[in-house]
From TrEMBL:
Transmembrane segments: none annotated. InterPro entries: Cu_polyphenol_OxRdtase, Cu_polyphenol_OxRdtase_sf, Cytotoxic_necrot_fac-like_cat. This is Purine nucleoside phosphorylase. NCBIfam families: peptidoglycan editing factor PgeF. Belongs to the purine nucleoside phosphorylase YfiH/LACC1 family. It comes from Spirosoma utsteinense. Keywords: Hydrolase, Metal-binding, Transferase, Zinc. Gene3D superfamilies: CNF1/YfiH-like putative cysteine hydrolases.
Length: 254
């Protein structure tokens, strides 16, 4: 796992860099105005941070992406598997994935340990943003998102490019037997020395992407951990619930 420090407001996934008309990024915790414990680029609306700080942080983030003229669609996430097809800006409720083919519209998810997954269908010019916690992962939300894209846009795996973003890592996501039993055994490991069991959210979601037919070369997986790189990213678990949120967003230029 890479440990490094920077002051970047966001990172652009390598897999998307060849597509100059595409806006796609994952925020860090740097470059905002929020005070501890939300320091500093807290982009989460549903936190105890001052609303004016979050508004200013979002303005800075979208400006840094040169996407301040884009619309933005997101949802109050419920750790479920429902997928919303949207053609307009707004704050929706009850969805953990959003898909669109509308140019000039960003879709995004907030995270602070769960996995953000960004999908770009190059052939049909469609995108998706997915929030996959452990419930969403075992519930197959990424597969349901791809199937929704297939139904709406004709998406196939071969034309998809995907970023599996920064989340809690496989050495620090400790789970009990009830949660561990819901994962395929390949994505759960027990450390006899520490007497703990951990689940690998990134690998579990990569497996689902591969099963849909997305080539491995078109799947970019973050090298970072919200826990091990807590100076760069917010971590709900490492900071005991009192922290900010990152945004992962994707959209096609108008």
């Amino acid at each position: 796992m890479i440990i490094e420090s920077s002051a970047l407001t966001h990172r652009v996934p390598h897999v998307f860099k060849p597509f100059t008309h595409l806006v796609a990024a994952e925020s860090t915790r740097h470059g905002g105005v929020s005070q501890p414990p939300f320091s500093s680029l807290n982009l989460g609306i549903n936190t105890d941070d001052e609303a004016s700080h979050v508004d200013e942080n979002r303005r800075r983030f979208f400006k840094a992406l040169t996407a301040d003229t884009f619309g933005f669609a997101s949802s109050y996430q419920v750790h479920g598997t429902d997928v919303l097809h949207t053609t307009e800006s707004g704050r929706f409720t009850g969805y953990d994935a959003l898909i669109t083919s509308r140019p000039g519209l960003l879709v995004g998810v907030t995270v602070a340990d769960c996995v953000p997954i960004l999908i770009y269908d190059h052939e049909h010019q469609a995108v998706a943003a997915v929030h996959a916690g452990w419930r969403g992962t075992v519930g197959g939300i990424v597969t349901k998102t791809l199937l929704a894209m297939q139904q709406q846009f004709g998406t196939t795996g071969k034309q998809c490019y995907v970023y599996v973003g920064t989340c809690i890592d496989e050495t620090t996501f400790e789970v009990g037997d009830e949660v561990a039993s819901q994962f395929p055994p390949a994505f759960v490991q027990t450390d006899p020395g520490r007497q703990v069991t951990c689940a690998n959210l990134k690998a579990a979601n990569v497996s689902l992407l591969a099963a849909f037919g997305i080539p491995a070369a078109q799947i970019d997986v973050s090298a970072f951990s919200t826990v091990l790189n807590n100076d760069e990213y917010f971590s709900y678990r490492a900071e005991q619930g009192k922290t900010g949120r990152m945004l992962a967003v994707i959209g096609i230029g108008a």
